[in-house]
Amino acid sequence: MEKIIPENKLLHKTLNNKCLIFFMIFILVFIWSIFLGRYKLSIVDYKSVLVNLPMLILGGEVSDPSILIICKVRLPRVLLASFVGAGLALSGLVFQQVFKNPIASPDILGVTSGASFGAALGIILPWQFPGLIQISAFVFGILAVSMAYGLKKASKDDNILYLVLSGIIVSAFFSALLSMVKYLADPYQQLPSIVFWTMGGLHRANWVNSIGCGLIVIPSIFIINSLRFKLKILLLNDDMAKTLGMDVSKFRNVMLCLVSFVVCYCVSIAGTIGWIALIVPHITRIILGYKNKNIYFITSIIGATTLVLFDDIARCISTTEIPVGILTAAIGAPILGYLLIFKKTV
Q1: How far apart are the first and last CA of the chain?
Q2: Among the listed residues 68, 333, 23, 86, the one whose alpha carbon sits nearest the alpha carbon of residue 224
Q3: Distance, C-alpha 218 to centroid of its chain
Q4: What subcellular locations does the record give (predicted)?
Q5: What angle (nearest 5°) sits at the alpha carbon of residue 244, between those of residues 241 and 246?
Q6: Is the Cβ–Cβ distance between 309 and 29 less than 8 Å?
Q7: What is the DSSP string of 250-261?
Q8: Residue 11 pLDDT > 80, yes or no?
Q9: Of 74-88, 115-129, 166-180, which range is least confident?
Q10: What count of other Cβ atoms lies within 10 Å of the Cβ of residue 267?
């Protein structure tokens, strides 16, 4: 017993250090990303931003273009990338734990298909108002999850396979509706907007979207982390989990509803950004292993860092911005192949 206690303390200290290291890396990437952009800023410009920032926060009028670029364009965009990346990565980890499947992702319940159809519908509607696309995407994303649960409940079977099959059915249904909307859309104005939205991007970033996303993602991280013990029990056989006093079906449904809500909100703002929810949990497990209490925090931090870096590449690699969803797919697919062949984690 005397030998085990120091080892546990050393393990606990090591995990805490890893959490601190990843957080410091995220802070460095965050600050570095604010400096990046096609509009070049000098050190003097950044000093001016720091001097005038209190006045800007208090609502004062600022006409300096460097201050406006940093405070109204770059900073909210980097914040939004951080929150969306953290939300998607955390949701992917929870999906993989709940479904006990290393290749599970939020797409499995039709969230992405429903939100994509909602956004496309918002684009072609004859009446337009600010936030219509985001609201429509969010509503139909939630509707897709509700339909998947409705189908599963109609089957009157608690087997999780029925929920997966329900998600596949709902996803196919909304994909067909999305194709119909594309067919009916104006090919010169509306169709390009639909296609660009489904590619994913953070060009809609502003302070309202960034703060709203943060208010959804940050509490979700702490809620999920507080339930980490029950999530570990959920990894066991369902019968064994029931013997430990857990209502497996109810807890699973609550967790899926929570992370689906997070994904719907992220997708409604940033469009379809794939592979973050699938790849980042694998990277976290390679670094930390399967059993530690910091996995949810570190997964969120790595997800935030990853999407911020992808967005930096998307807006700086060429004279025109590349949809970040293209980059996450182009880079994420080879990473998954590497994990499959060499790391055996999939």
Answers
A1: 36
A2: 86
A3: 12
A4: Cell membrane
A5: 65
A6: yes
A7: HHHHHHHHHHHH
A8: no
A9: 115-129
A10: 27
pLDDT tens for 246-275 read: 888 888 888 988 998 899 889 888 988 988
Q: Which residue has the tokens 């984690």?
A: 345
Read off the pLDDT of residues 158-168 as tens digits, 9 standing for 90 and up.
677 788 888 89
Are residues 119 and 136 in contact, defined by beta-carbon separation less than 8 angstroms? yes
Helices (H), 129-244: 132-154, 160-184, 190-198, 207-226, 228-234, 238-243
**CATH number, domain at 218?**
1.10.3470.10
Per the structure, how many domains does the chain have?
Answer: 1
Domain span including residue 163: 4-343
CA of residue 206 relative to chain centroid, distance: 17
Residue type, 232: K
- Cα distance between residue 241 and residue 248, in whole Å: 7
d(CA 43, CA 40): 10
Place of tokens 């970040």: 324
Q: How many CB atoms lie within 10 A of CB 230?
A: 16
What are 230's two structure tokens?
Answer: 């029950």
Q: Which of 7-21, 101-115, 133-147 has the highest mean pLDDT?
A: 133-147
Range with the lowest mean pLDDT among 42-51, 187-196, 281-290? 42-51
Q: Per-residue pLDDT averaged across 79-92, rounded?
A: 95
Confidence (pLDDT) at 172: 93
Sign of the Cα torsion 124, 207, 328, 338 reads negative
